[in-house]
Amino acid sequence: MEISKSLIGARLNNKQSTIKIGSTYLANNTPAISLISLDFPTGKRELINQIRPKTINEIVPTTVDNTDTKTEIANLAAYTQPIERLTGLTTLSDDRLVFVTTVSTQKGHHNNLLFFDGKSSKSKKLSGFQKCNCTVENLLAIAGDKLIAVVSLAGGIPPFELVEIDLKNGKVTSDSDLGLPQLPPNIRLSNLTLGPDGKIYATTLGMEGVTRLVQLDLDNRSMVTGKGKILSLSPLIFDKKLLQQDLFSLTFSPSGEVYALANPQYEEANSLFSVDLDAGKMTLLSKAEVDKITFSRKKDK
Hints:
mainly beta
């Protein structure tokens, strides 16, 4: 599989059901994932319904290599049926894909990293959260293959915090030397993505109900907190209206084009959009039955 030639979409493979559904099994295994190539015909990127989706790989359930690692969990009586989610997808400099999957069971929330190089996969438990039952809601590889993530302290909803994740051992670090910004308690920050210029972008959804593009400025830190800043950019606009639902995913192509995965009209399938970074305007491209999207870091030769 040549990941670098496609916009990649990923979704949980619900057709490949797990026989063993005990909490211990779910905590130590990532679910099956389908990888979808979202190719554009040459010269047709501006046309709706011109994307040719194609399944390019199926990643089977993978057992973590650190099963003995203790994680921060507590019983959740409200969960009667396990709920698995694909919450993050990013690409390392060597073209490996990295996923985050979360599962909610009666015994708590579990988070796992999954690495896939096009042929084989391996996975690792995440641990070191400040509180019990945190969930990783977004993931991004930045310069030096450092992983940063958005963590929910309340099982998927605000308050959120930005953390760094160690690739080698899956440890979560809240007090990172990257100077990750401190997030307001009532703001949903998500859809981290890295531009070709090395700048980190994301979206926020606040109390006013408008989704907005933002930039994480890690260079010009606050004199008071020593943390980076969140710079507000354009609100997102679809069909001449302010977008009031969050995106599911946001990514840059190697040449600087911006793509978003969203479902603003609550349809059965998600849709892929191109995004004008300056104006925030979203243009519909095609349906895309995936949960997350990403591009390769490698340039095509």
